[in-house]
Design a protein that fits this description.
The chain has about 250 residues and is an alpha/beta fold. It has one domain: Alpha-Beta Barrel (TIM Barrel). About 45% of the residues lie in helices and about 20% in strands. The chain has twelve helices and nine strands. The protein has an eight-stranded mixed β-barrel, surrounded by six helices. It is globular and about 45 Å long. It binds guanosine-5'-monophosphate (2 copies), manganese (II) ion (MN) and sodium ion. The site of manganese (II) ion has 4 residues, from loops. Manganese (II) ion binds next to loops. This is EAL domain-containing protein.
């Protein structure tokens, strides 16, 4: 594939970059973290969406070097933010199952000087399809460093609730399809969000609602008790410099 060939050179050619989307506290609406999201501006193909190239990167294992770069870059950028602001990085199963995943995290933290407690790693339920015990061991290693782990896109994967007993996720990210559903008065979506919030509360985990696009949706989500909110209403994924400006304006 042409795209795969170009992707092999994308890192060297500095075509890969990160944008940052704010996550706010649902009550105070203060920014508590940013999720780092990868972007590829290919010289040959123009901007390629992550929905298109992340799966290719995963199939070819190019996600391992790309993911390492993402970790390092996100940690480096986060050191410029106020100390209470954290950074969340998406981790593919291919990365998590690399034997030296935890050392890649250590290297990113050491090189940047970022406090481990400011780094959150986002994984999806798909990691449990492959090898739950290896996934768990790997996540426990990074949690021992002080990092937290979020369960991303919750509710749309091949959910087994069993692993929620075994892994201390700090946050469950409620997939935006439920948020959109709830906003359109879907009784089922509302019931599912309520149940996830109640479950997270009793497991001492927080919840982040994804894909909140309006003030009305934010209010609904706050009433449903989600701890944090992410979505276009509070900010689109933005360049690092714009993320930084967001604080400077607010104080
Ligand atoms: O940014 P956007 O919504 O277009 O992202 C689309 C998908 O790509 C999402 O599922 C997101 O989790 C994934 N993604 C974005 N950035 C990264 C990254 O740095 N690493 C991995 N593995 N996936 C990412
Ligand atoms: O799978 P993950 O949650 O990591 O993907 C995050 C993706 O969701 C990003 O690509 C981001 O662009 C997208 N996203 C973030 N906020 C919103 C939103 O409010 N509406 C929609 N439609 N997409 C969003
Ligand atoms: Mn994510
Ligand atoms: Na998500």
């Amino acid at each position: 594939r042409q795209l795969e060939f170009a992707l092999r050179q994308a890192l060297e050619k500095s075509e890969i970059e990160l944008v940052y989307q704010p996550v706010v506290d649902s009550r105070t609406e203060a920014v508590v973290s940013f999720e780092a999201l990868v972007r590829w501006n290919s010289a040959h193909h123009g901007p390629v969406s992550p929905g298109k190239f992340v799966p290719i990167a995963e199939d070819t294992r190019l996600i391992v070097p790309i993911g390492t770069w993402v970790l390092e870059q996100a940690c480096r950028e986060a050191t410029r933010w106020p100390e209470h602001v954290r950074v969340a990085v998406n981790v593919s199963p291919e990365q998590l199952f690399e034997p030296d995943f935890a050392s890649a995290v250590v290297r990113a933290l050491t090189a940047s000087g970022l406090d481990a407690r400011r780094l959150e790693l986002e994984v999806t339920e798909s990691i449990f399809l492959r090898d739950p015990s290896v996934a768990r061991a790997s996540l426990e290693q990074v949690m021992a460093l002080g990092c937290t782990v979020a369960l991303d896109d919750f509710g749309i994967g091949y959910s087994s609730l069993g692993y929620l007993r075994k892994i201390s996720f700090s946050t469950i990210k409620v997939d935006r399809s439920f948020v959109q559903g709830a906003a359109q008065n879907s009784a089922e979506s509302l019931a599912i969000i309520r149940a996830v919030v109640a479950m997270a509360d009793s497991l001492e985990m927080t919840t982040t609602a994804e894909g909140v696009e309006s003030a009305e949706e934010a209010e609904l989500i706050r009433k449903l008790g989600c701890t944090k909110i992410q979505g276009y209403y509070f900010g689109r994924p933005m360049q690092a410099d714009d993320a930084l400006k967001l604080f400077r304006r607010r104080r």
